[in-house]
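User: Could you go from structure to sequence for me? I need the amino acid at each position, not a summary. Structure tokens:
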């Protein structure tokens, strides 16, 4: 099975929507929908389950650090994190109550404005459907 047809995953309820809204963009390599506590919710089919789970955990940690930085620096709430790597970019933002959206670009020169716009549109489109209740022990 190649990386584009990996369907042997756990629940991936909104994977089709990530593929439709973000995976179809030329500059997007992968997209992952994450619960705020770092659990994978859905992923584009271009990303294997294990890789998506790793990105989910890291994305949750990155956003937590950014939020704390915002509080310490009196910058307000964190809207989005943009991480520039040598080979691509990573955008991470809120996508509903207790939900995050991580998008990895196909290269370092991706059209960030278009991708961020699509991320925002996706978050608005799904609204409460992308929300997860707080987890309690």
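Assistant: Here is the amino acid at each position, in order:
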């Amino acid at each position: 099975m190649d990386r584009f047809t990996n369907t042997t995953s756990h629940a991936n309820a909104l994977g089709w929507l990530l593929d439709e809204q973000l995976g179809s963009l030329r500059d997007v390599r992968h997209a992952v929908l994450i619960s705020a506590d770092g659990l994978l919710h859905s992923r584009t089919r271009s990303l294997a389950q294990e890789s998506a789970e790793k990105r989910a955990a890291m994305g949750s940690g990155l956003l937590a650090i950014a939020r704390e930085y915002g509080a310490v620096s009196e910058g307000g709430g964190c809207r989005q994190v943009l991480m520039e790597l040598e080979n691509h970019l990573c955008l991470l933002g809120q996508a509903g109550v207790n939900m995050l959206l991580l998008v990895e670009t196909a290269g370092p020169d991706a059209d960030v404005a278009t991708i961020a716009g699509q991320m925002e549109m996706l978050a608005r489109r799904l609204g409460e459907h992308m929300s997860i209740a707080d987890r309690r022990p």
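One structural detail worth keeping in mind: Helices lie at 15-23, 49-72, 112-126.
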